From TrEMBL:
Broad EC category: hydrolase
Limits of the Thioesterase domain: 120-192
Annotated GO MF terms: hydrolase activity
UniProt superkingdom: Bacteria
Record flagged with keyword Cytoplasm: yes
Cell compartment(s), UniProt: Cell projection, Ruffle membrane; Cytoplasm; Membrane
Protein's name according to its UniProt entry: Acyl-coenzyme A thioesterase THEM4
Entry EC number(s): 3.1.2.2
Coiled-coil ranges per UniProt: none
GO cellular component: cytoplasm; membrane
GO biological-process terms attached to the record: fatty acid metabolic process
Length: 209
């Protein structure tokens, strides 16, 4: 388990020995996450009366103050290490479920929620890039068994990406030159290609931030 205390030497980016858990945050953490995502969906589309906004501020302030007493570091928060939850429980990522993750590549189902709206009822392009960045990083990590950082990520938006639809996303290392991993990827709605990527991930040296 990674110790985050300041006496432990810096371990570098993403910490390959990250403690993975399906229990951290307790048995109701999945539902807690879902409620937060639902709140973001509602916030994206709600036009509250001033009375309701004031009420919401009171409820949310009280809740935020309670959560303040339970903050932990990024290496031990369930958000990002709960591999049993969509997108490892990381609320800032579009939710996805991994079907397969091998050195040959990653296959996942991803879906964009109402709060991922760009405009005209479809997904924001930046959110598509976020999904590719995370799953491109995962394809690199699994391929080299080491942590990698994105050097560049080019997204070709081939057609509109719908919200609220289960989509197929694939990422794989197409070519490797030393620490350089050229990662390709595709996002499909059924047979229709929504986007693809050309990207470069760099394998970090031991201890590199
Ligand atoms: C719980 C379960 C966990 C599972 C985890 C799931 C996975 C989660 C995944 C999450 C994923 C999230 C991912 C994220 O969000 S990572 C966050 C976004 N990325 C960054 O912040 C990266 C910032 N940049 C850097 O840190 C450094 O620049 C890096 C590390 C990238 C390279 O600096 P470093 O000092 O190490 O290397 P180098 O400079 O000697 O370069 C090495 C080689 O690369 C070539 N090069 C470099 N840049 C470019 C470029 N732009 N175009 C073309 N080429 C480029 C360079 O010419 C050289 O080539 P060569 O001369 O050797 O031929």
């Amino acid at each position: 388990m990674s110790d985050s205390s300041p006496t432990v030497p810096h371990e570098g980016g993403f910490r390959p020995d990250l403690d993975i858990s399906t229990e951290r945050g307790g048995p109701h953490y999945a539902e807690f996450s879902e409620q937060v995502r639902t709140l973001m969906d509602k916030a994206r589309f709600a036009c509250p009366t001033d009375e309701l906004a004031v009420e919401a501020i009171a409820v949310l302030s009280e809740l935020n103050a309670k959560l303040d007493a339970h903050l932990v570091d990024e290496w031990t928060t369930p958000a990002g290490t709960r591999v049993d939850l969509p997108a490892r429980g990381n609320l800032t990522l579009p939710p996805y479920e991994i079907e397969e993750a091998t050195p040959e590549g990653v296959l996942a189902t991803v879906w964009f929620r109402p709060y991922h709206l760009g405009g005209n009822g479809v997904t924001h392009g930046g959110q598509v890039a976020v999904a590719f960045d995370d799953l491109g990083g995962m394809a690199s990590l699994v391929a080299v068994n080491g942590v990698c950082r994105t050097a560049y990520l080019k997204v070709n938006y081939r057609s509109l990406t719908p919200l609220n639809t289960r989509l197929t996303i694939r990422t794989w290392v197409e070519r490797r030159e030393g620490r350089k991993l050229f990662v390709a990827g595709t996002l499909h709605d059924g047979d229709r290609l929504c986007a693809d990527i050309e990207s470069l991930f760099i394998e970090l040296r031991p201890g590199q931030a």
